[in-house]
Amino acid sequence: MENLIICLILFISVITDLRNRKILNIVTFPAIIGGLIYFSIFSGFDGFVFSGKGFLVGLGLLFIPFAMGGIGAGDVKLLAAIGAWKGAMFVFYTGIYAAIIGGVIAIFILIKQRKLGFTFKSMLFSLMFFRGTQGSLEINSGNQGTVSIPYAVPIAIGALLSFMWELLR
Fold first, then answer.
1. pLDDT score of 124 more than 70
2. What's the predicted TM-score (pTM) here?
């Protein structure tokens, strides 16, 4: 049942992120609360701890990129919702896979737009002087100097890879 719920959440989130560049709270908040309640009812306190740890790991994985302005709050809540349903290890692997896939997608976009060198210089400058990027990793039509991807896509691919990893174990 958990896998079906995660697939539904991811499907809706990918569609809305691709269309509107938003991951809806009406999807993520009930998913988080539902995961916590579901595991609490069926597994008691241990279930609540399992779901809570997953939620916190999912939240923690993307909190710093969000705080630096490089990722949206919906992406953070989506990963936290996955964690609430699948636990800490699943969401950890999903986050790692999503980061790798998102990075590869971003590099391809930057190469296509001939902005790879400029972006690496800007990131290096930001790291050297501990300065936030404030959205410099976003692609939007309003600002020609920014690049972004709908991050629900790498998260969904990362979750699918984690599902496959679960099946192989």
1. yes
2. 0.83
Query: What's the CA gap between 85 and 88, in Å, rounded?
Result: 9
- Written as one string, the DSSP assignment of 2-52 is HHHHHHHHHHHHHHHHHHHS---HHHHHHHHHHHHHHHHHHHHHHHHHHHH
Q: Give me the number of domains the chain comprises.
A: 1
Q: Cα(27)–Cα(13) distance, rounded to whole angstroms?
A: 8
* Rg, Å, the chain Cα set: 17
Domain extent for 25:
2-168
Q: How far apart are CA 91 and CA 162, in angstroms?
A: 8
| Best CA proximity match to 64, nearest among 108, 16, 126 | 126
What is the Cα–Cα distance from 50 to 38, expressed in whole angstroms? 11
